[in-house]
Amino acid sequence: MAELATIARPYAEALFRVAKSTNLTAWAEVVGEMAQVAAHPDVMAMVQNPKIPATTAAGIFLSALKSPLTEQATNFVNTLASYHRLLVLPEIAAQFHVLKNAHDGAADALISSAFALTEAQVSQLCADLEAKFGRKLQANVSIDPSLIGGVRIEVGDEVLDTSVRAKLQQMQLALTA
Question: pTM to 2 decimals?
Fold first, then answer.
């Protein structure tokens, strides 16, 4: 079977074109909710059941969503169901999010810290990173005690690792080389 990213790409791009021409923010919220519902184990089991017709699966899936859907969104879900692609929705949502960020001139910053950061520290770090990367960043902060100290930052495919763990690994490599 083809890789999920390959299957999801045309759907995400088509959905992004439709969302861009209407209301991008509203679509982003709906697509995020669809991805959450599609990732639920019960929904996954229902969608994978060959005894459940595609129209029934689409109806059940649509009833699980809390947000009211436009006709376009309903048609999108029905199309995915008819091609047995509802399970690809989390990947479609991820690719849609990347396209939306690129359109907005923004990016996600995954910040891992050894200790909890205050709001002031996060906002200062984001300001410094925005100056470095030249775009608006949406910070997702997590605590990772295995870093020992410092932070590890991922923006797209770039990684800035100033953690103590990374420095120790560099020292180990230097000593064993």
Answer: 0.79
The encoded tokens of residue 44 equal 């996954």
Angstrom CA distances, 18 to 72, 89, 130, 176, stand at: 9, 16, 29, 55
Q: Which residues contact 54 (CB under 8 A, 6 or more apart)?
A: 81, 82, 84
| C-beta pairs of 57-65 under 8 Å, 24+ apart in sequence | 57/81, 57/86, 58/82, 58/86, 61/37, 61/86, 64/37, 64/40, 65/30, 65/33, 65/34, 65/37
Using alpha carbons, select from 82, 75, 132, 83 the residue that is nearest to residue 107: 132
Model confidence over 75-127: pLDDT tens digits?
999 999 999 999 999 999 999 999 999 999 999 999 999 999 999 999 999 99
Which residues sit opposite 153 in a β-bridge?
111, 160
User: Contact, 83 vs 47, CB < 8 A?
Assistant: no
What does DSSP say about strands 136-143 and 106-113: parallel, antiparallel, or unpaired?
parallel
